[in-house]
User: Which sequence fits this backbone?
């Protein structure tokens, strides 16, 4: 199944200090995991796997947290997962996301990984543990940065 794609506008057009910007800088000069964002732009959710000990790492890393090796490779996680746990954000949303409440947040199980993500196109009362969810790539209209979410 192919990942869905949606363009979004950064909420409220607030100029956030860089450390409060929830969408990280994504090019090679700003991050050593720029390949993650390049892959995401093509609809692929990827992460790093250690060539030394075989650990699949989330979030993507530049050094294995298990054996400290820098010998990593990119692996595709696919576009489907299973809802492992979820909750609903009703109040106290991060700065700039206040108008989005209520929205759902969950842990998505993909292989051996649990990935924290916003769950779009879902109401809390309709979600179920074990439900299949699908990758959704969101793109900021202003500058083309991308991030991932899941949808039912």
Assistant:
């Amino acid at each position: 199944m192919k990942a869905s794609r949606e363009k979004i506008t950064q909420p409220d057009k607030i100029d956030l200090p860089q450390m409060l910007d929830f969408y990280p800088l994504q090019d090679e000069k700003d991050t050593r995991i720029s390949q993650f964002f390049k892959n995401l732009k093509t609809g692929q959710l990827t992460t790093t796997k250690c060539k030394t000990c075989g650990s699949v790492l989330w979030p993507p890393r530049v050094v294995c947290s298990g054996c400290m090796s820098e010998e990593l490779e990119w692996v595709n996680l696919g576009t489907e997962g299973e809802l492992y746990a979820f909750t609903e954000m009703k109040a106290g949303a991060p700065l700039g996301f206040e108008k989005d409440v209520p929205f759902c947040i969950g842990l998505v199980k993909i292989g051996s990984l649990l990935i924290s993500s916003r769950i779009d196109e879902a109401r809390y009362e309709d979600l179920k543990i074990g439900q299949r969810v699908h990758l959704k790539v969101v793109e900021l209209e202003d500058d083309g940065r991308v991030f991932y979410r899941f949808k039912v």
